[in-house]
Write a structure and sequence with these properties.
The protein has 555 residues and is of the alpha/beta class. α4 (69-82) crosses α18 (416-428), α7 crosses α8 (200-207) and α7 packs antiparallel against α10. The radius of gyration is 23 Å and the shape is globular.
Length: 555
């Protein structure tokens, strides 16, 4: 059975019955059919947020074989419910780009999924569309002001940083010329599109605490300069009110269910290699208000998603996880140990052990936060007993609690051992996390601390262009912002070909971007793009619908 087959084989409970498990009355639900509902922000209880247990799920460096963070997150959430805990899984919404591209959906896998799987992977409740429209409204207001004769701010079109966005991998829109057509079209200039998941509006939604905060952050977006060199913000265009109105429903988290009928909240979906990579603050706090344990995830490997989760999201929201779960797979570790992709299903304990340094680097970086770390071995059918034992023994030799995770095959029952060690680790955590850097550090010092502590790099090298941009942003007063490092997810370094645990490497920053609304600087290392392209054979080619409306090909 495919993931979609499994998802469609389970009879869904009415969403009001799922809400009852969290003591949410029907009056507090905004129904989207019988299987989805929006939750009001009034359900957030800050005292419960502080008292309850936040569990972060992250992973070793991703490989083409897949690691299964979402599958483990959902399986762990179900397992916590299985052992009698009141748990909520809180994860991100999938972007249509990966769904129709190479990665596929992001609703878990096997018997550890959230449903309705097809809806979640497609338009869901329209959150991404609302974010896209708010983003593009600002673009329209900028274009209009540039050629306006009644209220012209004197924006220099050459300095406009703001781009349009859409939720699809469309490489042809990365760089375009806009406003053609003479006077009616405006003043032509170079611009482009970002994918919605990598847009600043997505980051703003996920880092906002309430409606007022959303509006304030939208107003703080830096869009470019005047002809005199003065900065122009979205609030100067009176854009923030209308932008927030477009997201009046998108700001509310979405309640769905797992295959086992346990509550799950899905909200927001920023990429982790250039955005902050975690679901919204509001959704996380909602989960902590409603359940004793919240299982959440951060995108890509721990060097990207987990680092941003701690240093950006948790700092902004004043949250602190009680446990960090590091997902590792035998297949991925063998890949990092030098075994070819097509041979990963063959037993090879030597290649597995050669990949251990990647696991060790991530354990080391996560321990720097001062929060208990446990390892979840996400099992695949090709894993042998000898390989499982070797990995388990190695984790134990490092003093790290470890458990097998069989959620894909067995759902929550396959993750109860993991749930038990997570509960134990959470009970032992008596302190808040330690950030990697201080906000009072200079931007360069912040980057150096991330690159040395989290990646294991030796130096941070800036191009002349990056130096000029950084000086400009510091002159504008943004030196105290946290940094959102943008680099490849395929390596601890900025070179995707360096697998395992690279040594004696530098991180090269080619340029900077700034997200003054979301509240962070973005150093860009290597060839990271905000608008991905489709692969040679896109997943879209296999997705279809029959005469009865049944979808197939989603995975």
């Amino acid at each position: 059975m495919t993931d979609l087959d499994i998802a469609q084989s389970v009879k869904e409970e009415h969403i009001r019955d799922i809400a009852t498990k969290l003591d949410i009355s029907e009056e507090n639900l905004e129904f989207y059919g019988t299987n989805k509902a929006k939750l009001p922000l009034s359900l957030i209880d800050e005292q419960k947020v502080d008292d309850n247990n936040l569990i972060l799920v992250t992973a070793i460096t991703p490989t083409p074989a897949g690691e299964g963070k979402t599958t483990v997150s959902i399986g762990l959430g179900d397992a916590l419910c299985e052992i009698g805990k009141k748990a909520v899984t809180v994860i991100r919404e999938p972007s249509l780009g990966p769904v129709f591209g190479i990665k596929g959906g992001a609703a878990g896998g096997g018997w550890s999924q959230v449903i309705p799987m097809a809806d979640i992977n497609l338009h869901f409740t329209g959150d991404f569309h609302a974010i896209e429209k708010a983003n593009n409204l600002l673009s329209a207001l900028i274009e209009n002001n540039i050629q306006s004769k009644t209220r012209n701010l004197g924006i220099d079109p050459r300095t406009v940083l703001w781009k349009r966005c859409m939720d699809m991998n469309d490489r042809g829109l990365r760089n375009i010329v806009a406003a053609l057509g003479g006077k009616p079209g405006g003043i032509p200039r170079e611009t482009g599109f970002n994918i919605t998941a990598a847009s600043e509006i997505m980051a703003i939604l996920c880092l906002s605490k309430d409606f007022e905060d959303l509006k304030k952050k939208c107003g703080s977006i830096y869009v470019g300069d005047t002809w005199e060199g003065k900065p122009v913000y979205a609030r100067d265009l009176n854009a923030e009110g209308a932008m927030a109105v477009l997201m009046k429903d998108a700001i509310k988290p979405n309640l769905v269910q797992t295959l086992e009928g346990n509550p799950a909240i899905i909200h927001g979906g920023p990429f982790a290699n250039i955005a902050q990579g975690t679901n919204s603050i509001i959704a996380t706090k909602m989960g902590l208000s409603l359940g004793d344990y919240v299982v959440t995830e951060a995108g890509f490997g721990a060097d990207l998603g987990a680092e941003k989760f701690m240093n950006i999201k948790c700092r902004e929201a004043e949250l602190s996880p009680r446990t960090i779960v590091l997902v590792a797979t035998i297949r991925a570790l063998k890949y990092h140990g030098g075994k070819p992709l097509q041979e990963l299903t063959n037993e090879d304990t030597a290649a597995l052990k050669a990949g251990f340094p990647n696991l060790e680097r991530h354990i080391s970086s996560l321990k720097s936060f001062g929060v208990p770390v446990v390892v979840a071995v996400n099992c695949f059918s090709s894993d042998t007993e000898a390989e499982k034992q070797a990995l388990m023994d190695h984790c134990k030799s490092l003093g790290i609690p470890v458990a097998l995770s069989n959620g894909w095959a067995d759902g929550g029952k396959g993750c109860t051992d993991l749930a038990e060690i997570v509960v134990e680790a959470s009970a032992s955590c008596n302190n808040k996390f330690t950030p990697t850097y201080s906000l009072d550090d200079s931007p360069r010092t912040k980057m150096e601390k991330i690159c040395s502590t989290i990646y294991g790099a030796e130096n941070v090298i800036l191009t002349n262009k990056a130096k000029r941009q950084l000086k400009r942003f510091e002159d504008l007063g943004y030196g105290r912002l946290p940094v959102c490092m943008a680099k490849t997810q395929k390596s601890l370094s900025d070179d995707e070909k360096q697998l395992g645990r690279p040594a004696h490497f530098d991180i090269h920053i080619r340029e900077f971007e700034i997200a003054t609304g979301a509240g962070f600087l973005i150093p860009i290392a290597g060839n990271i793009l905000r608008m991905p392209g489709l692969p040679g054979t896109p997943a879209a080619e296999k997705i279809t619908i029959d005469a009865e409306g049944n979808i197939s090909g989603l995975f």
